[in-house]
Specification:
- By secondary structure, the protein is mainly alpha-helical.
- The chain folds into two domains: 43 residues, no CATH class; 119 residues, no CATH class.
- 0% of the residues are buried.
Length: 163
């Protein structure tokens, strides 16, 4: 049977048991995490870990902003479909769904086969990533390999681009 984190590392208190001001609680949590890391794992210097985390967090922020943009666009489309269904206009609702599917279907292809307009949209987000990478160029974190092999939402394998 697989052990829980606290069963595996019993000296690590549950965060709920820590009392004090928010700053004191945060310091205690950090102290405990560092204690466990020092005891059980070979660690990189804390400064290097902080740079890696900051870099990863900035890239994750960009990805999240991209998702916000995408999901708001989809939500607007779904609202239109919902209004059509509420008006008992199933024909329009089905048309809008099929239209969206066709739009996506033409873009479910490798990047190099996309039209220039779609590529330019992707480039806008890629430029944001490049800006972040260039800001770390002078003092880069060591190699980060936090790559998950499966999507945490749909659990499908994620292809890793080795280029």
């Amino acid at each position: 049977m697989k052990k829980t984190f606290l069963e595996k590392y019993p000296e690590f208190k549950q965060f709920d048991d820590i009392v004090g001001t928010p700053e004191e609680v945060n310091k205690e949590i950090i102290r405990q995490v560092e204690e466990v890391l020092d005891k059980y794992f070979v660690r990189k210097p804390r400064k290097q870990i902080s740079k890696q985390i900051m870099f990863l967090e900035r890239l994750s922020e960009i990805e999240h902003n991209q998702w916000i943009h995408w999901s708001k666009t989809i939500w607007d489309r779904l609202e239109t479909i919902k209004r059509a269904i509420e008006a008992d206009d199933k024909r329009t609702a089905l048309f809008l769904l099929e239209e969206q599917r066709n739009k996506w279907d033409k873009n479910w292809i490798p990047y190099n086969q996309l039209d220039e307009k779609t590529k330019e949209f992707d480039r806008v987000w890629a430029k944001k990533v490049l800006e972040t990478i260039s800001s770390y160029r002078k003092n880069p974190p060591e190699e980060i390999d936090f790559f998950e092999t499966k999507c945490p939402i749909c659990h499908q394998e994620i292809e890793r681009n080795e280029n």
